[in-house]
């Protein structure tokens, strides 16, 4: 989440004007007495309550958005993150109800509340159900004698369509389809593979279960559907440690060319941003990537377009995600 220094300064001015100073973030600063804080609140109680409401607004909004996704996540372990956040808000509301606005504001602006809110954003609002299938390909694509450049020039996995329901055309367009959950395929090393479910949190996607071993690189397909309430510009922020950029089709179209071999990335959550326009309604997303067991892959969806990887863009909290439960759903 991005923190704007001028936003913090504005809120501090509001609290000072209300007679209630913001909490000192220095660990060396002596704790202020409850009596002193209470006296400052008493000087301008209406403004102090307004500042408390403003400080709590992001957490309350996150709770409401997460509760709207209860059907998806309330039976999952990540739902405990929402319980922790709601309990913290309840404690602050109890302080407010007792008239202790100063302590309530101090807790509302504390790092602990923001950290609890960010967990909910990352693991519930940004959590993405996925279908994954693979790995496909030829073991000879991998040069086991050259770990620095393990992908041979004979690699043609991005030019090869492996699934009946998806046939890539010039890597730009995709024959429309949804995953057929009844199909099974022959993958790498003659393994039988089919679509299986996975979940991605806000950052890292673990795909070890779909890769034959830690040495050979193979092709995986990843599918999900993203609901947007309106036309929405978003960026897919990607990071990986393989030599090829993943192919991504949104609404069956791909907006860029894949990377040439020999460009090894260092694992990092923010290496590349790709820009997409989401349409109102459900937007099918298919990704095709080269992967191996133990490799790390990062994928995050953030607001807007930016050409700078140094920008800390906000996560898109209004999006929802789904995967088909069976053929034809």
Please characterize this protein's 3D structure.
The chain is an alpha+beta fold. It folds into 2 domains: 5-125, no CATH class; 128-322, Jelly Rolls (Sandwich). It contains 7 helices and 14 strands. The strands form 4 sheets. Strands 1, 6, 8, 10, 12 and 14 form a 6-stranded antiparallel sheet that branches. The protein has a 4-stranded antiparallel sheet with strand order 7-13-9-11, with no helix packed on it. A two-stranded antiparallel ribbon has the order 2-3. Helix 3 (45-67) runs antiparallel to helix 5 (79-97), helix 3 packs across helix 6 and helix 3 runs parallel beside helix 7 (111-125). The longest helix has 23 residues, at 45-67. The chain starts with a helix and ends in a 7-residue tail after the last strand. Mean pLDDT is 77; it is low at 1-32 and 257-263.
Q: Can you tell me the overall shape?
A: elongated
Helix content: 25-40%
N→C terminal distance: 35 Å
The CATH architecture designation of the largest domain is: Sandwich
Largest sheet features: 6 strands, antiparallel
CATH class of the largest domain: Mainly Beta
Q: Helical region count?
A: 7
Radius of gyration: 24 Å
Proportion in β-strands = 15-25%
- Spans of 5+ residues with little confidence (pLDDT < 50)? 1-32, 257-263
CATH topology term of the largest domain: Jelly Rolls
Tally of discrete structural domains: 2
- The pLDDT mean sits at 77
- The secondary-structure class comes to alpha+beta
Helix-strand pattern: HHHHHHHEEEEEEEEEEEEEE
> How many β strands by DSSP?
14
